[in-house]
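Protein: DUF5403 family protein
Species: Kitasatospora purpeofusca
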Amino acid sequence: MAELRPDLDAVVAALPGVMGALKLEAEERKARVVAKAALHIETGEFIAGLKVKRHAKGYAIVNEDPLAAHKNWGGFNHRANRHVDGIHAMEAALW
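Structure follows.
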């Protein structure tokens, strides 16, 4: 009788062809983030911080800029004493 391995998803995810396809998809989604962020460049640090990193089950788009969350989602600027809108570039990777 045939058995279904409980770890079959991990085995399939680790196959070279699958990982290659996942990396390609992550790179394409990163390009969308860069395109949207390019409309809002002041220093270029947000785009320079974008990286595609491998993890156990695929790839992730991360931003190593320490202010990436503030730039992406906005927040309150205490110096200007007002709310600043974010650029919402990371969301471009979701479509």
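Remarks: The radius of gyration is 18 Å.
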